[in-house]
Automatic annotation (TrEMBL):
Similarity field: Belongs to the 3-hydroxyacyl-CoA dehydrogenase family.
3-hydroxyacyl-CoA dehydrogenase C-terminal domain location: 184-280
Lineage of source species: Bacteria, Pseudomonadati, Pseudomonadota, Alphaproteobacteria, Sphingomonadales
PROSITE patterns assigned to the protein according to its UniProt record, in alphabetical order: 3HCDH
UniProt keywords, alphabetically: NAD, Oxidoreductase
Identification of the protein by name: 3-hydroxybutyryl-CoA dehydrogenase
Amino acid sequence: MDAIGIIGAGQMGSGIAQNAAASGLTVLLADREQSIADAARDGIAKRFARLVSKDKISETEADAAMQRIQPVSDYGAMDQASFIIEAATEREDIKQAIFAEAGKVLRSDAILASNTSSISITRMGANLPDPSRFIGLHFFNPVPVMELIEIIPGLATSQESVAKTRAFAELLGKKIVMSEDEPGFVVNRILLPMINEAIFVLGQGTANVADIDKGCRLGLNHPMGPLQLADFIGLDTCLEIMRVIFESTGDSKYRPAPMLMKYVDAGWLGRKSKRGFYDYS
Ligand code: CAA
């Protein structure tokens, strides 16, 4: 495979870049500011250094993988990519703007994928010149560790694009779950209402943060409790996903918990802002 492009060098984009480079792919890692893309590359270098120190990979392998990552700020560079993954903020307007820009340089044989957690692939693809080459490819955080990937064809996505995307996901070493283009797809449709419910449970004083998480860790064998996981995902992302599910189903059981909205209003977004249900300062 030629180079792949990743647009959005945040938590998810960086994880995808690390995973792809470790799988032998050349990666163009793009963000709107060169400094953001460069910082993401530095973060990936630290992750590889940790893997080397734990004897998970050799220094030579880590160096070779880092050589394959090229941070860029000009989306024009995406004309070299045979597979482009958008991993920007979970907001449809931001994503649409990226597709419009990347669409201008998209090769005629390239696939454009979105790492959206919940937004309709069919609707986002409808604005592209060729919706048959647009698909949902949903990674889980931390990307290099989580085995799962969801593949979501939109109504207009071609079988050829699905086959190419499956081959790409397998190259990254992922296990695939296919999902119809429905709000939240498979995993987030189940996970986010659970997290939202945990916030309702907290809000009505049934138990405190520590006990809600302890209950789910010890009683369900989840690696993280729902509130710790919400902080890990980002409370703004959790709220966006709940809003998408709520608005597209119109079902009141998916209404976002008032406390979730309040925390996001306060800028308490979880780990990334150093404050959420826990304090990370
Ligand atoms: N990036 C890359 N690797 C990471 C990482 C990161 N951000 N964080 C941890 N790791 C790696 C570590 O290097 C370590 O690797 P090795 O085993 O090879 O040494 C491994 O993960 C385990 O890490 P730790 O020992 O430090 O910590 P842990 O055992 O507590 O595991 C965890 C950390 C993997 C994050 C674990 O707590 C976990 O699985 N949590 C649940 C994660 C989860 O549910 N993710 C899905 C979120 S939902 C989503 O992503 C979809 C969406 O659209 C919202």
